[in-house]
Fold:
Amino acid sequence: MTSFKTLDDLGDASGKRILVRVDLNVPMEEGKVSDDTRLRATLPTVTELADKGAIVLLLAHFGRPKGMPDPAMSLALVTKPYEQVLGRPVRFIGEWDKQAVATLAPGDVAILENTRFDPGEEKNDPAFAARLAALSDLYVNDAFSAAHRAHASTEGIAHLLPAYAGRAMEAELKALERALGDPERPVAAVVGGAKVSTKLEVLRHLVARVDHLIIGGGMANTFLAARGVDVGRSLAEHDLAGTANEILDAAERANCTVHLPYDVVVAKELAASPPSLRTCDVHEVAADEMILDIGPAAVEALADVLKTCRTLVWNGPLGAFETPPFDAATVALARTAAALTQEGSLVSVAGGGDTVAALNRAGAAEDFTFVSTAGGAFLEWMEGKELPGVAALNQGK
Ligand code: ADP
Ligand code: MG
Structure:
Protein backbone atom coordinates (compact mmCIF):
# COMPACT_ATOMS: atom_id res chain seq x y z
CA MET A 1 0.00 0.00 0.00
CA THR A 2 2.08 2.63 1.35
CA SER A 3 5.10 4.79 0.95
CA PHE A 4 4.37 7.38 3.59
CA LYS A 5 7.18 9.15 5.39
CA THR A 6 7.44 8.93 9.18
CA LEU A 7 9.12 11.03 11.86
CA ASP A 8 12.28 9.03 11.10
CA ASP A 9 12.45 10.80 7.71
CA LEU A 10 11.78 14.25 9.05
CA GLY A 11 15.39 15.26 9.62
CA ASP A 12 16.41 18.00 12.04
CA ALA A 13 13.25 19.25 13.71
CA SER A 14 14.98 21.73 15.95
CA GLY A 15 13.50 25.22 15.71
CA LYS A 16 11.06 24.11 13.00
CA ARG A 17 7.37 24.87 13.28
CA ILE A 18 5.42 21.65 12.80
CA LEU A 19 1.65 21.43 12.46
CA VAL A 20 0.52 18.12 13.91
CA ARG A 21 -3.05 16.99 13.10
CA VAL A 22 -4.22 15.05 16.15
CA ASP A 23 -7.52 13.71 17.47
CA LEU A 24 -8.53 15.80 20.50
CA ASN A 25 -12.24 15.09 20.01
CA VAL A 26 -12.68 13.73 23.52
CA PRO A 27 -16.01 13.09 25.26
CA MET A 28 -16.81 15.67 27.97
CA GLU A 29 -19.04 15.29 31.01
CA GLU A 30 -19.74 18.34 33.16
CA GLY A 31 -16.75 20.20 31.76
CA LYS A 32 -14.37 17.29 32.38
CA VAL A 33 -12.80 14.90 29.89
CA SER A 34 -14.52 11.57 30.61
CA ASP A 35 -12.17 9.42 28.52
CA ASP A 36 -8.65 10.64 27.72
CA THR A 37 -7.65 7.74 25.43
CA ARG A 38 -7.35 10.07 22.44
CA LEU A 39 -5.20 12.55 24.35
CA ARG A 40 -2.82 9.82 25.43
CA ALA A 41 -2.57 8.51 21.87
CA THR A 42 -0.87 11.76 20.80
CA LEU A 43 1.90 11.57 23.39
CA PRO A 44 4.59 9.64 21.46
CA THR A 45 4.54 12.09 18.55
CA VAL A 46 4.14 15.29 20.53
CA THR A 47 6.77 14.36 23.11
CA GLU A 48 9.25 13.25 20.47
CA LEU A 49 8.90 16.44 18.42
CA ALA A 50 9.00 18.76 21.43
CA ASP A 51 12.05 16.94 22.79
CA LYS A 52 13.76 17.47 19.43
CA GLY A 53 13.20 21.21 19.81
CA ALA A 54 10.34 21.63 17.36
CA ILE A 55 7.61 24.22 17.85
CA VAL A 56 4.63 21.89 18.01
CA LEU A 57 1.32 23.30 16.76
CA LEU A 58 -1.58 20.94 17.35
CA LEU A 59 -4.47 21.05 14.90
CA ALA A 60 -7.74 19.29 15.67
CA HIS A 61 -11.50 19.45 15.44
CA PHE A 62 -13.81 19.28 18.44
CA GLY A 63 -17.50 18.50 18.08
CA ARG A 64 -19.58 19.71 15.17
CA PRO A 65 -19.67 23.51 15.23
CA LYS A 66 -20.76 23.76 11.54
CA GLY A 67 -18.18 26.25 10.34
CA MET A 68 -18.80 28.87 13.02
CA PRO A 69 -17.08 29.72 16.30
CA ASP A 70 -18.91 28.27 19.30
CA PRO A 71 -17.34 28.74 22.75
CA ALA A 72 -18.85 25.44 23.92
CA MET A 73 -16.68 23.67 21.34
CA SER A 74 -13.50 25.67 21.74
CA LEU A 75 -10.33 23.64 22.12
CA ALA A 76 -9.49 26.02 24.96
CA LEU A 77 -11.60 23.58 27.02
CA VAL A 78 -9.22 20.73 26.23
CA THR A 79 -5.98 22.64 26.81
CA LYS A 80 -5.76 22.16 30.61
CA PRO A 81 -6.69 18.47 30.48
CA TYR A 82 -4.16 17.99 27.68
CA GLU A 83 -1.48 19.75 29.69
CA GLN A 84 -2.07 17.29 32.54
CA VAL A 85 -1.80 14.28 30.26
CA LEU A 86 1.29 15.64 28.51
CA GLY A 87 3.00 16.71 31.72
CA ARG A 88 4.31 19.97 30.30
CA PRO A 89 2.87 23.43 29.62
CA VAL A 90 0.54 23.81 26.65
CA ARG A 91 -0.45 27.16 25.15
CA PHE A 92 -3.83 27.75 23.56
CA ILE A 93 -3.85 29.92 20.44
CA GLY A 94 -7.32 31.08 19.46
CA GLU A 95 -6.56 32.12 15.90
CA TRP A 96 -4.73 30.63 12.93
CA ASP A 97 -2.43 33.58 12.81
CA LYS A 98 1.27 33.82 11.99
CA GLN A 99 1.96 36.52 14.56
CA ALA A 100 0.41 34.53 17.40
CA VAL A 101 2.47 31.49 16.45
CA ALA A 102 5.65 33.56 16.21
CA THR A 103 5.67 34.04 20.00
CA LEU A 104 6.43 30.35 20.58
CA ALA A 105 9.91 29.02 21.29
CA PRO A 106 11.56 25.70 20.33
CA GLY A 107 10.16 22.88 22.47
CA ASP A 108 6.86 24.69 23.04
CA VAL A 109 3.53 22.93 22.47
CA ALA A 110 0.38 24.85 21.51
CA ILE A 111 -3.18 23.85 20.63
CA LEU A 112 -4.74 25.90 17.84
CA GLU A 113 -8.47 26.58 17.75
CA ASN A 114 -11.02 24.00 16.54
CA THR A 115 -10.47 23.75 12.78
CA ARG A 116 -14.21 23.30 12.24
CA PHE A 117 -14.81 26.88 13.39
CA ASP A 118 -13.88 27.79 9.81
CA PRO A 119 -16.26 26.70 7.03
CA GLY A 120 -13.21 25.95 4.86
CA GLU A 121 -12.21 22.97 7.02
CA GLU A 122 -14.97 20.54 6.05
CA LYS A 123 -15.13 21.89 2.49
CA ASN A 124 -11.42 21.21 2.11
CA ASP A 125 -11.13 24.78 0.88
CA PRO A 126 -7.64 25.38 -0.59
CA ALA A 127 -7.61 28.90 0.87
CA PHE A 128 -8.13 27.59 4.42
CA ALA A 129 -5.55 24.85 3.88
CA ALA A 130 -3.10 27.51 2.66
CA ARG A 131 -3.83 29.68 5.69
CA LEU A 132 -2.97 26.77 7.99
CA ALA A 133 0.07 25.78 5.96
CA ALA A 134 1.44 29.34 6.20
CA LEU A 135 1.85 28.83 9.96
CA SER A 136 4.40 26.09 9.65
CA ASP A 137 7.34 24.42 7.93
CA LEU A 138 6.20 20.80 8.10
CA TYR A 139 2.98 18.81 8.52
CA VAL A 140 2.49 15.63 10.52
CA ASN A 141 -0.79 13.70 10.49
CA ASP A 142 -1.27 11.61 13.63
CA ALA A 143 -5.08 11.31 13.45
CA PHE A 144 -5.97 8.09 11.66
CA SER A 145 -9.48 8.41 13.10
CA ALA A 146 -10.02 11.57 11.00
CA ALA A 147 -8.28 10.24 7.87
CA HIS A 148 -11.50 9.10 6.19
CA ARG A 149 -12.51 12.74 5.81
CA ALA A 150 -11.03 14.91 3.06
CA HIS A 151 -10.84 18.09 5.10
CA ALA A 152 -8.39 20.98 4.92
CA SER A 153 -6.49 19.89 8.04
CA THR A 154 -6.40 16.20 7.08
CA GLU A 155 -6.04 16.26 3.29
CA GLY A 156 -5.64 19.66 1.66
CA ILE A 157 -2.73 20.76 3.80
CA ALA A 158 -0.74 17.59 3.10
CA HIS A 159 -0.29 18.79 -0.47
CA LEU A 160 1.12 22.13 0.64
CA LEU A 161 3.82 21.11 3.10
CA PRO A 162 6.25 18.23 3.45
CA ALA A 163 3.95 15.64 5.06
CA TYR A 164 4.70 12.83 7.50
CA ALA A 165 2.79 10.20 9.46
CA GLY A 166 3.03 10.60 13.23
CA ARG A 167 3.80 7.65 15.50
CA ALA A 168 0.16 6.71 16.22
CA MET A 169 -0.75 6.94 12.52
CA GLU A 170 2.31 4.87 11.64
CA ALA A 171 1.43 2.16 14.18
CA GLU A 172 -2.17 2.04 12.95
CA LEU A 173 -1.22 1.80 9.27
CA LYS A 174 1.36 -0.89 9.94
CA ALA A 175 -1.09 -2.96 11.98
CA LEU A 176 -3.81 -2.67 9.34
CA GLU A 177 -1.36 -3.59 6.60
CA ARG A 178 -0.36 -6.70 8.55
CA ALA A 179 -4.00 -7.68 8.99
CA LEU A 180 -5.43 -7.20 5.52
CA GLY A 181 -2.86 -5.62 3.21
CA ASP A 182 -0.27 -8.36 3.16
CA PRO A 183 -1.33 -10.81 5.88
CA GLU A 184 0.08 -14.17 6.83
CA ARG A 185 -2.43 -16.84 5.84
CA PRO A 186 -4.81 -18.32 6.65
CA VAL A 187 -6.74 -15.16 7.54
CA ALA A 188 -10.00 -15.13 9.50
CA ALA A 189 -12.42 -12.23 9.79
CA VAL A 190 -15.06 -11.98 12.48
CA VAL A 191 -17.90 -9.70 11.49
CA GLY A 192 -20.70 -9.15 13.96
CA GLY A 193 -22.90 -6.39 15.24
CA ALA A 194 -26.46 -5.46 14.71
CA LYS A 195 -27.13 -5.04 11.02
CA VAL A 196 -25.96 -6.34 7.65
CA SER A 197 -27.02 -3.07 6.01
CA THR A 198 -24.34 -1.05 7.83
CA LYS A 199 -21.61 -3.50 6.90
CA LEU A 200 -22.45 -4.67 3.37
CA GLU A 201 -19.31 -3.16 1.89
CA VAL A 202 -17.21 -4.69 4.66
CA LEU A 203 -18.60 -8.16 3.88
CA ARG A 204 -18.15 -7.74 0.12
CA HIS A 205 -14.55 -6.66 0.56
CA LEU A 206 -13.68 -9.39 3.07
CA VAL A 207 -15.01 -12.39 1.15
CA ALA A 208 -12.44 -11.71 -1.56
CA ARG A 209 -9.58 -11.34 0.93
CA VAL A 210 -9.96 -13.78 3.81
CA ASP A 211 -9.98 -17.56 4.10
CA HIS A 212 -12.61 -17.71 6.85
CA LEU A 213 -15.49 -15.33 7.34
CA ILE A 214 -17.11 -15.75 10.75
CA ILE A 215 -20.51 -14.06 10.93
CA GLY A 216 -22.19 -13.41 14.26
CA GLY A 217 -24.52 -10.94 15.95
CA GLY A 218 -27.71 -9.73 14.37
CA MET A 219 -26.02 -10.05 10.98
CA ALA A 220 -25.90 -13.83 11.36
CA ASN A 221 -29.68 -13.82 11.78
CA THR A 222 -30.09 -12.11 8.41
CA PHE A 223 -27.88 -14.74 6.76
CA LEU A 224 -29.66 -17.61 8.49
CA ALA A 225 -33.04 -16.22 7.45
CA ALA A 226 -31.79 -15.86 3.87
CA ARG A 227 -30.97 -19.56 3.95
CA GLY A 228 -34.51 -20.36 5.01
CA VAL A 229 -34.00 -20.72 8.76
CA ASP A 230 -36.90 -19.44 10.88
CA VAL A 231 -35.29 -16.90 13.22
CA GLY A 232 -38.49 -16.01 15.09
CA ARG A 233 -38.52 -12.46 16.43
CA SER A 234 -34.75 -12.02 16.08
CA LEU A 235 -33.28 -8.78 14.83
CA ALA A 236 -32.89 -9.61 11.13
CA GLU A 237 -33.14 -7.73 7.84
CA HIS A 238 -35.42 -9.99 5.84
CA ASP A 239 -35.42 -7.63 2.87
CA LEU A 240 -31.67 -8.25 2.48
CA ALA A 241 -32.04 -11.99 1.81
CA GLY A 242 -30.98 -11.56 -1.82
CA THR A 243 -27.92 -9.54 -0.86
CA ALA A 244 -26.96 -12.05 1.82
CA ASN A 245 -27.16 -14.89 -0.69
CA GLU A 246 -25.05 -12.92 -3.19
CA ILE A 247 -22.37 -12.51 -0.52
CA LEU A 248 -22.47 -16.25 0.23
CA ASP A 249 -22.09 -17.00 -3.49
CA ALA A 250 -19.20 -14.56 -3.83
CA ALA A 251 -17.52 -16.22 -0.85
CA GLU A 252 -17.86 -19.64 -2.44
CA ARG A 253 -16.32 -18.40 -5.69
CA ALA A 254 -13.42 -16.86 -3.76
CA ASN A 255 -12.82 -20.01 -1.67
CA CYS A 256 -13.74 -18.19 1.49
CA THR A 257 -15.40 -20.44 4.07
CA VAL A 258 -18.34 -18.70 5.72
CA HIS A 259 -19.10 -19.76 9.29
CA LEU A 260 -22.64 -19.27 10.55
CA PRO A 261 -23.66 -20.53 14.00
CA TYR A 262 -25.41 -23.88 14.32
CA ASP A 263 -26.45 -23.35 17.89
CA VAL A 264 -27.72 -20.12 19.40
CA VAL A 265 -28.77 -18.54 22.68
CA VAL A 266 -32.37 -17.35 22.60
CA ALA A 267 -34.87 -15.59 24.86
CA LYS A 268 -38.29 -14.01 24.63
CA GLU A 269 -37.01 -10.67 25.83
CA LEU A 270 -33.72 -8.82 25.84
CA ALA A 271 -33.00 -8.62 29.58
CA ALA A 272 -30.28 -9.86 31.90
CA SER A 273 -30.65 -13.65 32.38
CA PRO A 274 -34.38 -13.71 31.55
CA PRO A 275 -36.46 -16.75 32.61
CA SER A 276 -37.01 -17.66 28.93
CA LEU A 277 -33.27 -18.03 28.31
CA ARG A 278 -32.20 -21.22 26.53
CA THR A 279 -29.66 -22.60 24.08
CA CYS A 280 -30.85 -24.48 21.01
CA ASP A 281 -30.07 -25.58 17.48
CA VAL A 282 -30.66 -22.79 14.93
CA HIS A 283 -33.49 -24.84 13.47
CA GLU A 284 -35.37 -24.92 16.78
CA VAL A 285 -35.97 -21.22 17.41
CA ALA A 286 -39.62 -20.64 18.34
CA ALA A 287 -41.74 -17.96 16.69
CA ASP A 288 -41.74 -15.79 19.83
CA GLU A 289 -38.00 -16.11 20.55
CA MET A 290 -35.03 -13.92 19.62
CA ILE A 291 -31.49 -15.07 18.87
CA LEU A 292 -29.31 -12.93 21.14
CA ASP A 293 -25.97 -14.71 21.00
CA ILE A 294 -24.30 -17.55 19.18
CA GLY A 295 -24.14 -20.82 21.09
CA PRO A 296 -21.32 -22.62 22.94
CA ALA A 297 -20.88 -25.37 20.33
CA ALA A 298 -20.44 -22.74 17.62
CA VAL A 299 -17.91 -20.89 19.77
CA GLU A 300 -15.91 -24.07 20.29
CA ALA A 301 -15.85 -24.74 16.54
CA LEU A 302 -14.79 -21.14 15.86
CA ALA A 303 -12.00 -21.39 18.41
CA ASP A 304 -10.72 -24.41 16.44
CA VAL A 305 -10.84 -22.33 13.25
CA LEU A 306 -8.79 -19.56 14.87
CA LYS A 307 -6.21 -22.13 15.98
CA THR A 308 -5.51 -22.92 12.30
CA CYS A 309 -5.20 -19.23 11.35
CA ARG A 310 -2.24 -16.83 11.42
CA THR A 311 -4.18 -13.58 11.14
CA LEU A 312 -7.49 -12.32 12.53
CA VAL A 313 -9.40 -9.12 11.87
CA TRP A 314 -12.46 -8.51 14.03
CA ASN A 315 -15.30 -6.02 13.85
CA GLY A 316 -18.60 -6.39 15.66
CA PRO A 317 -19.72 -8.36 18.73
CA LEU A 318 -21.18 -11.85 18.28
CA GLY A 319 -24.22 -11.13 20.45
CA ALA A 320 -26.11 -8.47 22.38
CA PHE A 321 -23.06 -8.22 24.61
CA GLU A 322 -24.26 -5.28 26.73
CA THR A 323 -26.76 -7.59 28.43
CA PRO A 324 -25.31 -10.71 30.09
CA PRO A 325 -25.25 -13.60 29.45
CA PHE A 326 -25.45 -12.56 25.77
CA ASP A 327 -21.81 -11.48 25.97
CA ALA A 328 -20.65 -15.07 26.52
CA ALA A 329 -19.69 -15.95 22.93
CA THR A 330 -17.92 -12.64 22.30
CA VAL A 331 -16.00 -12.90 25.57
CA ALA A 332 -15.01 -16.54 25.00
CA LEU A 333 -13.84 -16.09 21.40
CA ALA A 334 -12.03 -12.84 22.29
CA ARG A 335 -10.15 -14.65 25.05
CA THR A 336 -9.20 -17.44 22.65
CA ALA A 337 -7.89 -14.91 20.15
CA ALA A 338 -6.00 -13.08 22.90
CA ALA A 339 -4.39 -16.32 24.11
CA LEU A 340 -3.37 -17.36 20.57
CA THR A 341 -1.89 -13.91 20.05
CA GLN A 342 0.13 -14.17 23.25
CA GLU A 343 1.37 -17.62 22.20
CA GLY A 344 2.64 -16.01 19.02
CA SER A 345 0.48 -17.99 16.59
CA LEU A 346 -1.96 -15.21 15.64
CA VAL A 347 -1.78 -11.58 14.57
CA SER A 348 -5.04 -10.07 15.83
CA VAL A 349 -6.43 -6.68 14.88
CA ALA A 350 -9.81 -5.41 16.01
CA GLY A 351 -11.79 -2.19 15.77
CA GLY A 352 -15.24 -0.63 16.09
CA GLY A 353 -16.81 1.26 18.98
CA ASP A 354 -18.81 -1.62 20.43
CA THR A 355 -16.12 -4.13 19.57
CA VAL A 356 -13.54 -2.23 21.61
CA ALA A 357 -15.99 -2.04 24.53
CA ALA A 358 -16.65 -5.79 24.26
CA LEU A 359 -12.94 -6.68 24.12
CA ASN A 360 -12.28 -4.48 27.13
CA ARG A 361 -15.07 -6.20 29.00
CA ALA A 362 -13.51 -9.56 28.14
CA GLY A 363 -10.15 -8.31 29.42
CA ALA A 364 -8.77 -9.26 26.00
CA ALA A 365 -7.96 -5.91 24.39
CA GLU A 366 -4.46 -5.64 25.88
CA ASP A 367 -3.51 -9.03 24.49
CA PHE A 368 -4.59 -8.35 20.91
CA THR A 369 -1.84 -7.29 18.51
CA PHE A 370 -3.66 -4.02 17.81
CA VAL A 371 -7.01 -2.54 18.75
CA SER A 372 -8.11 0.43 16.70
CA THR A 373 -10.23 3.10 18.34
CA ALA A 374 -10.69 4.88 15.01
CA GLY A 375 -14.37 4.06 14.46
CA GLY A 376 -15.50 5.32 11.04
CA ALA A 377 -12.00 5.33 9.58
CA PHE A 378 -11.47 1.72 10.69
CA LEU A 379 -14.71 0.61 9.05
CA GLU A 380 -13.89 2.39 5.79
CA TRP A 381 -10.53 0.67 5.81
CA MET A 382 -12.35 -2.68 6.34
CA GLU A 383 -14.39 -1.78 3.26
CA GLY A 384 -11.17 -1.53 1.26
CA LYS A 385 -11.53 2.19 0.70
CA GLU A 386 -8.57 4.45 0.28
CA LEU A 387 -8.68 7.03 3.09
CA PRO A 388 -8.05 10.56 1.78
CA GLY A 389 -5.88 11.56 4.74
CA VAL A 390 -3.67 8.52 4.20
CA ALA A 391 -3.59 8.87 0.41
CA ALA A 392 -2.46 12.49 0.78
CA LEU A 393 0.46 11.37 2.95
CA ASN A 394 1.50 8.95 0.25
CA GLN A 395 1.70 11.68 -2.35
CA GLY A 396 2.72 14.51 -0.07
CA LYS A 397 5.54 16.81 -1.16
P1 ADP B 1 -19.21 -1.90 16.22
O1 ADP B 1 -19.56 -0.63 16.94
O2 ADP B 1 -18.11 -2.66 16.92
O3 ADP B 1 -18.90 -1.68 14.76
P2 ADP B 1 -21.97 -2.56 15.78
O4 ADP B 1 -22.34 -1.17 16.15
O5 ADP B 1 -22.11 -2.95 14.35
O6 ADP B 1 -20.50 -2.87 16.28
O7 ADP B 1 -22.87 -3.59 16.58
C1 ADP B 1 -22.97 -3.61 17.96
C2 ADP B 1 -24.38 -3.86 18.42
O8 ADP B 1 -24.92 -5.05 17.88
C3 ADP B 1 -24.45 -3.99 19.91
O9 ADP B 1 -25.25 -2.97 20.43
C4 ADP B 1 -25.09 -5.36 20.14
O10 ADP B 1 -26.02 -5.38 21.21
C5 ADP B 1 -25.81 -5.58 18.82
N1 ADP B 1 -26.09 -7.01 18.59
C6 ADP B 1 -25.22 -8.00 18.40
N2 ADP B 1 -25.82 -9.17 18.26
C7 ADP B 1 -27.15 -8.94 18.36
C8 ADP B 1 -28.31 -9.76 18.29
N3 ADP B 1 -28.23 -11.08 18.08
N4 ADP B 1 -29.52 -9.16 18.44
C9 ADP B 1 -29.59 -7.84 18.66
N5 ADP B 1 -28.54 -7.01 18.73
C10 ADP B 1 -27.33 -7.56 18.59
MG1 MG C 1 -21.39 0.48 17.05
